[in-house]
Design a protein that fits this description.
The complex is a heterodimer. Chain A is mainly β. Chain A has no helices and 11 strands. The mean pLDDT of chain A is 95. Chain B is mainly beta. In chain B, 0% of the residues lie in helices and 55% in strands. In chain B, strand 6 and strand 7 form a beta hairpin. Chain B starts with a strand and ends with a strand. The mean pLDDT of chain B is 94. Classes of the chains: A mainly beta, B mainly beta.
């Protein structure tokens, strides 16, 4: 079975903090994704990585950066967290076409 | 870009009833996924179904790519089927990125 794990289920941070969200997959997938999900706005792609050290901006990259130093791990970084980044963050991985999701991280920025 | 519309937006059933969820898309696609988002927020893969029909227990899905729609059938619904069902298709031919519909929220009452 494909397994995608995320470092935290719930996270509370303060405005201005640097926040790291980690995602790990165990299936040697080439592609990894970060989404955020907000009521009324659906799932929106933040960043996408198609190989180690390779990344591509999604629909809403502003305020975020990513890191992929190893194939199995894809990190989302909020350089200076703001209240409008309070959201559900979902990570996914894909060998080709079919995406598999982790359990999600509910981030609250106070 | 490609548009994805799901219907109905909300559906309330009594346990044991059957239902059909629909996903329309505005352009030809080479793959389509159905997901179930459980109450804890995780997206669970139901089907990867570019065309044809697949069945998994009480759930089945049919994609008619030439007519640009897919249907998800749930038979003998159970309270654990409650949640939001999403369909997703590639943003464009050959892309690894997906665009999601807004989902159908299903509530199954005992």
């Amino acid at each position: 079975d494909v397994k995608v794990t995320q470092s935290s289920r719930y996270l509370v941070k303060r405005t201005g903090e640097k926040v790291f969200l980690e995602c790990v997959q165990d299936m040697d997938h080439e592609n990894m994704f970060w989404y955020r999900q907000d009521p009324g706005l659906g799932l929106r792609l933040i960043y996408f990585s198609y190989d180690v050290k390779m990344k591509e901006k999604g629909d809403i990259p502003e305020g975020y950066s990513v890191s992929r130093e190893k194939k199995e791990r894809f990190s989302l970084i909020l350089e200076s967290a703001s209240t409008n980044q309070t959201s559900m963050y979902l990570c996914a991985s894909s060998p080709h076409n079919e995406q598999f999701f982790g359990p999600g991280t509910r981030l609250t920025v106070l | 870009g490609i548009q994805v519309e799901q219907s109905p937006p909300d559906l309330i059933l009594q346990e044991g009833a059957n239902s059909t969820l629909r996903c329309n898309f505005s352009d030809s696609v080479n793959n389509l996924q159905w997901f179930h988002q459980n109450p804890w927020g995780q997206l669970i893969n139901l089907f990867y179904i570019p065309s044809g029909t697949k069945q998994n227990g009480r759930l089945s899905a049919t994609t008619v790519a030439t007519e640009r729609y897919s249907l998800l059938y749930i038979s003998s619904s159970q309270t654990t089927d409650s949640g939001v069902y999403f369909c997703a298709v590639p943003t464009q031919g050959g892309s690894e990125k997906l665009v999601f519909g807004k989902g159908t929220k299903l509530t199954v009452n005992p």
